[in-house]
# Entry
Amino acid sequence: MNIAAQAAIMLAGLSKSFPGVHAVERLSFEVYPGEIFGLVGPDGAGKTTTLRMLAGVMPPDRGTATVAGFDVGRDPEGAKHHLSYMPQRFGLYEDLTVDENIRFYADLFGVNKAERELRSGQLLRAAGMSEFRGRWAGKLSGGMKQKLGLICALIHRPKVILLDEPTTGVDPVSRRDFWRILYELTAEGVAILTSTAYLDEAERCHRVALLHQGRLLFCDTPAHLKARLGKGVLAVTSPEPRRVREQLQNAEGISSLVLTGDGVHIVVDDVARRMAEFQARLKQAQVPFDQIQRVTPTIEDLFVDAVSGGKVRR
Amino acid sequence: MNTEDRSVLIESLVKRFGDFTAVDHISLETRRGEIFGFLGPNGAGKSTCIRMLCGLLRPTSGRAIVAGFDVAREPESVRQHIGYMSQKFSLYNDLKVIENLHLFAGLYNVPRDLVGERIAWALEMADLKGKEAMMTGTLPSGWKQRLALGCAVLHRPPIIFLDEPTSGVDPISRRQFWDLIHQMAAEGVTVFVTTHYMEEAEYCNRLAMIYRGKMVALGTPTELKQKSMKGELLLIECEPLGVAVETLQGAPEVLDAAVFGNALHVLVPNAGKETARLQAYLVAREVQVSKIEPIRPSLEDVFVALTSEREGRKEPV
# Structure
């Protein structure tokens, strides 16, 4: 990843309120060329509002933001030719073919024919869609539609890309293709800001901002975020998860305990010590379990820990 | 009709729309008190299948028994014995909490002398006591979701169907919601969940992975992770990533290599054996390796492994 000194996207104290809600509150971060930056949080966290302000389609109340050097508040049209914004429902023409959709967007952005052919050829190959050029967009699977949307959004080689939950509901195979294209773009120095409600998807970003109710909780690389949790996670697999929970929920050193389908997921202060204690305790109570394993904490573990102040107990 | 059997039995269920097969010979069985997940991307056939199970859509062929009733022959009986909660929660936003509950009690034909008791129970379960007079539209999404669940189970059905119940809900509300679901299952209610959300699937006791109308795998989350992968996953942190991934894709004993954030995920037949060899292989090609360790595959890894294998085979019909 080449990080140039100049940020491609810069937010300083960006805020937006709607009657009764602070949708985005004093949000500040930068995204650099060649970086994939994830805006992560549940519905209502302020992700879409942030992207709309950056895309120049909604004016901020307070604070500033620049995209490709243009101030979105003062010059909302300025960044238009350097920017691509893919909202949750991207406008594809269902009764046009794949090729015709691409041509439409190329014309809209004033891309000439030679460049269009070169670029669309590359992108269609990367998306695994070369054989579908003649197919109606309406006849594509959800994953392919989403990849076609991305191709259309990239046809004019924007420097900055804003994606609003691009992979929601998309099948995992298409999701991987989608991310492969994003990784290839970073090599061209494109700055990518993508929102997601999938906390597991956050792990694919170079850096992420965790949002909750319009505020920034954390901003860092996924690895640093997990290290910041400062605690370990144990996964107990058992045919009787509920009995495991009953036995362990009042044990010492636990900050959160979640029932999963075939076990329990526990955030603890000291992995080695608690693993031994839990094993002994379950054996003594004759609760059946297959294994207790140390697992890597997830971004969700961190999110829950942060929002609840490390005291989620039910 | 076997009224003791309060669960779901599906035999070779098929639904065609014209020349499109939305559900293609799916067979499975759920136990009483089980949380069963139907996992697949949008358009995989999950909703079509659920609609048949709820008696809303007639199967083209095959058979489904829900709560002891045949969905094709006794769809009304099926509908009276199930609860259904959709993604959009189907609550009336401009009604109060209590008014929504009364409305659903009426829709589900809860006997009049039981309505008060059932509503009190639902409020208690959904942790909404004292919130009766609030307007539904102003509730936070986690509360709305619990209210929707309360409404869906007022008639105490032995089976409930949840369609993408927690998409977009914050992780804490999601965990609370699943606690509630686990509690209901412990009381013997069978819970049938559809989701495209791999994280949500982890909460299910057993899962069916659905892809293009077919069931591609069935098992507990752990079983699926242990048995469905063609190999074991290694996480490799190295620089430069682009060079490393290209090098590895052509390397012997590497089944798959993909960029994942600041690292690579590499699938090999045996993680223990390959670790040292891959490290040497990368270093010889001037890639700096800072970390290489085995990791547990996610359900998404499993799904990709199963479906790409299918793509490669070009779908024998």
